[in-house]
Structures are given as structure tokens and as C-alpha cells.
């Protein structure tokens, strides 16, 4: 009877303010990611685990004080029961342990966490801009927030600047967007041949993307360049994606 899903929300709004308070409980059943080997070797499979229960409480508020401007803020608190994760988190001072302790998934116990986010946006006739910053803290298994789980970055941000305009009496539309994402450092385990695991630091980094779209009647031609400043990114131990990436595409809308 304890493995149930639920969600409740209270929303309010007026001409300037909007807000909401939400509570949800979700049940995450062990899936193939838990019972089969991880292709990136970040975890070891562990069949027969119990479901993970997640209680999440959120508060959100936004205000539009002046024409075109908007401000928003949100906060969340999460409580995870029977969290599916490895028992030990890596740190600079606690950098070597057994491979099973570091990588083997288990029902690690209760995990607590919180996060906060703030954002500012502006939208004009042809231009829009927005930036959001988030800070979070997830504790280690055991129901305490005294020590942070370093496997997750503590902060991240996203900013966007865009411009669009219609030409030739609306038959041609041009849109330009610049998107910047940043995130803090984290740590991960990597296994070795002697049945031990070593802590590896994944450094903080950023990524700037540029996108251009040209719409001509029913066609949209899209060009995109990712990571234009060639920032070094390490999403997993030993994996460094290519620096600058580019691509293009065509979308044909049939209508209806």
C-alpha cells in the first residue's frame, strides 16, 4: 500500500503575480538500467532491488512588474526512500574504495535534497532574452544534509538571447538564437583491474550554441553550431565529446 503515485497542486494568479504549490509522490521501479550493465561503466547491475519512493514538494512564483519584463523564483525539497544508487560517493579526500562499494547499485536508504532557482526575462517585439540560475544540495544516503553528494553538480545556469523578424510581407521569417549553459564540477567513480575504484573529478564547464532558422513558406532551413568556444567537457570519466559541432536540416510542413 505504500507504493502509490499521487499529485496535488494549488495555483493562484492575478494581473501581475502567478504562483503554485505542488506535492507529488512517484514510484520508480527497477528497470533495465539497474539490472543490465551500464555501457559507460558508471555502475554495476544489481537485480532484485526494491522500488524507489520519491516525495517532492515545490513552490513557484513569477511576477511581471513592467511591460516585457518577468521575474520568477522556485524552491523544492525532495525525500527519497530506498534510493537506488551506490553506497559511497567520491570526494578528493575519499578517493579510493572497493569496486562493489563504489559502483554496485543498491537500495541505499533515505536521501534528502533541496534546490532553488531564480530567473529574469525580457521580451520585446523582435528580441527576447532570459537567464536562469539554479543551486542545489543533495545529501548522502542516511537521511542527513550534512554532507553533499558530489556525484551531482551543485549549480547550473542557462541564458538565451534571440531575435526574429518577418520579411517579404511575412513570406520569409528569420530567427537567431544564442544559448549559453554552465554547470559546476562533480565527481564520479571509475573501476580498475584490481577490483578497486578511484575518484575522478569532472570539471565545471560551459557550452555556447548558435542557431539560425529561415522559414520560407512551408520550409524551415536550420543551421546550428554547438560549443562554439570549444570548451572542454567531461560528462563521464574518460569521455570527452568533440569540441565544436555543427549541423543543418530542413523541415517541410504539409499543414493540417
Tell me about this structure:
By secondary structure, this protein is mostly beta strands. Helix content is 4%, strand content 56%. It has helices at residues 32-35, 99-103; strands at 6-13, 17-28, 52-63, 69-81, 84-85, 96-98, 106-107, 111-123, 127-138, 155-167, 172-183, 186-191, 196-202, 205-216, 219-226, 245-252. The strands form 3 sheets. The protein has an 11-stranded antiparallel β-sheet with strand order 1-2-3-4-8-9-10-11-14-15-16, with no helix packed on it. The mean pLDDT is 88.
Number of helices: 2
How many strands appear in the DSSP assignment?
16
Q: Give the averaged pLDDT, no decimals.
A: 88
Helical fraction: under 10%
- Largest sheet report: 11 strands, antiparallel
What is the string of helix and strand elements? EEHEEEEHEEEEEEEEEE
- Roughly how many Å apart are the termini? 46 Å
Strand content: over 45%
- Low-confidence parts, pLDDT < 50 over ≥5 residues? none
**What is the strand arrangement across the widest sheet?**
1-2-3-4-8-9-10-11-14-15-16
Shape: globular
